[in-house]
Amino acid sequence: MPGVMSHKIPNSYQITELRAATNGKGHGHNGHVTKSADPETARIRQAEQQIGILNRFFYAYPAAVEAISTSLDIYELFECFAWEMVTLLAADSCHVYCYDNNSKAVSLLTSSREGQQRQALEADLAYQQCLASLVKRAVLERIPIQYGLAEPDGYSPGSRAGAKTLLLLPLDGLAESLTVVAVVESPESHVFSRHEILSAQQLAAHAAIAAQNVGRLEELQAANEQLVITNEALESFAHTVAHDLKSPLATIIGSAEFLKLSDESWPVEDFRELTTIISDSSHKMLGIINGLLLLAAVGQQKADIVPVDMESAFHEVRSRLEEMITKHGAEIIVVSDLPSAFGYGPWLEQVWTNLLSNAIKYGGQPPCIEVGATALDDGTVRYWVKDNGQGLSQEQSARLFKPFSRLHTKSVSGHGLGLSIARRIVDRLGGEIGVESELGQGSTFFFTMPGNVR
Q: Most buried of 218, 239, 284, 319 (most Cβ within 10 A)?
């Protein structure tokens, strides 16, 4: 153990670093047993102390390890650890602190004290200042350190100040950015022995391992929950994919069978009609497959998040859809500026494509579409596309962003993947996507992206 060292925090406690006592229950800063006029009596008392400590550790240590190991919540685990440390060392209390290696801040996680006693601990700023400085040193030393604390200036009876002994135990291996330190508090007359410190250190190591296991268990539970959700979605997704691919494939097979049965007497117009049906159905299947590939790519592809010029992205998409705009006689009005935002350009162009093409296909006759953006108080930008269509019911709005969901029974080209792709993209980029709609009042589709781009 370190040698004796004494220093003083201004207007606070006199701190003395202690050596471990040579017996179970040392007295004073050096841990020596008070001398008796009868040496034999002193030896008997020392032996009784050692036997008492060994008996306590024989029963308390296994029980403490078992109690800590069965805790499945990280905060309950540290609460249990604090109580078991008090029992193991016959101490007054145990406080568990967390040191943030990045911010250098010290915070109290839990304490074996309850109610008003713990509130008094948190309210005693001088004591907290003292403990914070000792916790920081324990983090640097990475070994158990024992201190004696003398009364600070201005001590008054009834406060938390006064003579006491502190044993600080760092719990290693929990996280790179955080270090947990246990602070065991006992009267100054009790100087912890080497056996007590070693046992406390071993219990702290068990607590660190148990905390790691709880963290892994929580991660595993979260992964299992996500896996259940993914499997359910995958099952539904596979069923829908099979159904949507089956329809154009059946059309292709049927048309091809007619062609096999045909002869030279068939009119040329019939041949052209069948080949057109085959071509259209093949393109529909290709569109579904491409949509599925894009949907999968969004979940796996790495995206570089950079400032994106939304004005340019929108006008690029609008030029690509010019043929569709002309075909439907759509009018598109940009009612406000489209400020830049952080994102991934190619994906955001895909979002604009899906929202704008849906507004054209499902808008009124003719479609009249408004496009704009609104800066929100949280620093994000809300981009929106408003159409003059028939609107949506709550039930339709709830299933809009699921794969293969179609907006209406209206006969238009598409395969119901557009909005699910848009949602996947926006989720990956840290935004939100949704719709506001009422039957007969049209629909406003929107998505948000982090803004404040200079």
A: 284
